[in-house]
Amino acid sequence: MTIEKEVAEYVAKTRQSKALHEEAVAVMPGGNSRTTTFFDPYPFYLQRGQGAHVWDADGIDRLDFNGNYTSLILGHAPPEVVKAVQEAATQGLSFPGPTEHEIRLAELLTRRIPSLESVRFTNSGTEATMNAVRVARAFTGRPKIAKFEGAYHGTHDWALVSVSPDPRTAGGRRRPKPVAASAGVPPAVLKHVVVLPWNDAEACEQIIEKEAASLAGVLVDPLLGVGGILPPVAGFLERLRAVTERHGIVLIFDEVISFRVGEGGAQQRFGIRPDLTTLGKIIGGGLPVGAFGGRADILGAYDPRKGGARISHGGTFNANPLTMAAGVATLNALTPEAYGRLDALGERLRGGVTRLLEGTRRKGQVTGLGSLFCLHWTTGALTDYRSSRPKDPGAPMRVFMGLLNEGILLTQRGMGACSLPMTDQDVDRFVNALARVLARE
């Protein structure tokens, strides 16, 4: 089936969503506030979610492997989280001061992540990485930050560089050039962002050595999440840790996505201790959240007790009681047994997709770790952002639309995640739906 036929089937099923979209474009640019959720001809409008399922305005039930972009590790409306939020809400929605909920979530996080000696809360992963970059600069007195080509760290200027660049304008694979990922990113930003190639330890070390005197921090998603869930090759993160430590450069792990792969996140699974860690998504239990923390001597820049903080960090809804209570309930539910179940679901899905692609000789593959996975429509070795770019640029959208018509929700780029309420049968349903979509092509 062509993309046109998939779209036609989608439009025929979603008349109420179309009507809502027409109302939305009258009051919002493009009809939405999240660019990532938009797709042509219009997105479907969600009404409710329960467990592993969501229902749209037309009453269509879809099995949700998007999970609000990997945030909903316990699925939709988990009873223990809903109860915690309801109880907190009866005491007040927000306050001009701290609450005990903030302490309890901070305690849970610092116990689970040994490198997190001290932590502060924000309202998004974007705010978390923005503050981590700022404090790295303050601590080192250096102006530059390094990030990896193909990595997404939010929507502030310092992160919107070389997120998904055209390789024709992005320099060589081993020496990538900084490329603005959005209109409105000043040229001055590009002069202060160093771009590194994922999984090439030798090239990274050479670049970092050259820039070391002006480099405040290296910001790294240990799974290159949005770049395709491409885990690091053996020894890569170790080399990164060694060279940054040697030059006093702050190593920042962005675990907004990867924290869901284990009780202590990706840093626990890979045995690496970063200087700073940024968090978001699952730690808010479905509500807006972000956090950053790490070495106490670095975070001391925010301590106002000794003559005023060197860095002021406000936010009307930072650490609001509803989010903090939801986060505590979520982390309490994420037991070692829960992580074992999530790992098993992820392995079953990746194994099923691999057998499907091999059996049908489709030009595709699947990557991932723990409960995370990503579909790739290329047969070459997957090592970095450039190798993960689909040979057929239209393939991800055709598969996304086809799965929507099969009652399966994924992200448009092909990234997905299993959630705890899912069953083996749900995973098998995903694989079987993908088989039908591919058979139509």
**N-to-C SSE string, H for helix and E for strand:** HHEEEHHHEHEHEHEHEHEEHHHEEHHEEH
The strands making up the biggest β-sheet line up spatially as: 4-10-9-8-7-5-6
**Separation, N- and C-terminal Cα atoms:** 5 Å
> What is the makeup of the main sheet?
7 strands, mixed
Q: Count of helical segments? A: 16
Shape estimate: globular
Give the integer mean of the pLDDT values.
96
Category from helices, strands and their pairing? alpha/beta
Explain this structure.
By secondary structure, the protein is α/β, with parallel strands linked by helices. It folds into 2 domains: 177 residues, Aspartate Aminotransferase, domain 1 (Alpha-Beta Complex), CATH 3.90.1150.10; 255 residues, Aspartate Aminotransferase, domain 2. Helices cover 39% and strands 14% of the residues. The chain contains 16 helices and 14 strands. It has a 7-stranded mixed sheet with strand order 4-10-9-8-7-5-6, with helices on both faces. Strands 1-2-3-13 form a 4-stranded mixed sheet. The chain has a 3-stranded antiparallel sheet with strand order 11-12-14. Helix 5 packs parallel to helix 12, helix 8 packs parallel to helix 9 and helix 13 packs parallel to helix 16. The longest helix has 25 residues. The model has no long low-confidence stretch (mean pLDDT 96).
